Amino acid sequence: MTTKRRDEVLVGLLLMVALALALGGTIWIARGGLAKGYTMHARFPWGAGLKQGQPVLLAGVQVGFVEKVELIPDGTLDVTLQVQDQYRIPSGTTASVEANGIFGDMLIALTPVKGVDGKMAVGDTIPTGAGSPGVGQLLEKGDSIALNVRALSDEARRQFVDSGGVREVRRTVADLTKLVAQLSAVAAEQSRQLTLTQSQLRKTLSSVDSAKVDSTLVNLRATSASFEQLSRDFRETNTQVQSLVQKVNNGPGTAGKLMNDPAVYARMDTLLARLDSLAIDVRKNPRKYINLKIF
Description:
Layout: H1 3-30, E1 37-45, E2 55-58, E3 61-72, E4 76-84, E5 94-99, E6 106-111, E7 125-126, H2 135-162, H3 165-207, H4 210-250, H5 254-260, H6 262-284, H7 286-289
Parallel strand pairs: 1-7, 2-6
Antiparallel strand pairs: 1-4, 2-3, 3-4, 5-6
Helix pairs in contact: 4-5
């Protein structure tokens, strides 16, 4: 191997070591570096997709990383969290697993409760909260929605295409269009008739002489007043007649005796009978009563 070839190999090895150191240093610094920390615990069900080194966020701020993940036979994962000393976990905080990007990586999100001043003790287990759905769950939901949409479209095709539902809808729309046209024609005709009626009413009102109407009203008032006066006079006359009749019926005068005394009535009847007999005798024997001599 030549000296030049050996130098190139050494430079390549140095570059690879530098890159490894840079990558390791970056990861180490991202996980806290020389900062001291304390451990907390959380439990999640199997299949959460957690692994060592994933970030831990408190209200959106990275406060540590996943130090260890242990598989428990009861179906849970015992996750050890390494939290930096300058951050304290508030009481009532819940932990959930959320997606970190679109490539399937995960993180642990710590959600505190607003207005709580207390802090959790070092080494406590953070209660598990409801996490956001992962990419797999979203894809599963999308597949379920796609299947439902496909079933709905197939049913709609059977109902509206295969069974002639579209033709019925078109026929119904055509009938509705005809009905709307008929209603519009009726409304237009009614509007025209109403306009003509209003015009005739205006002409009739304009042809009425207001002076004649006033004169007629005055005459009606005068006639009403005359009828009222006549009614009053009639009532007064009726009162007087009733008073006169009462006096005749109850009074001691001649008229009262003629109407109420039977003896006077008998004498009057006898007198009338004698007058009738005298009149008959005068017609039969006029010379007996009239003695006429002519010179």
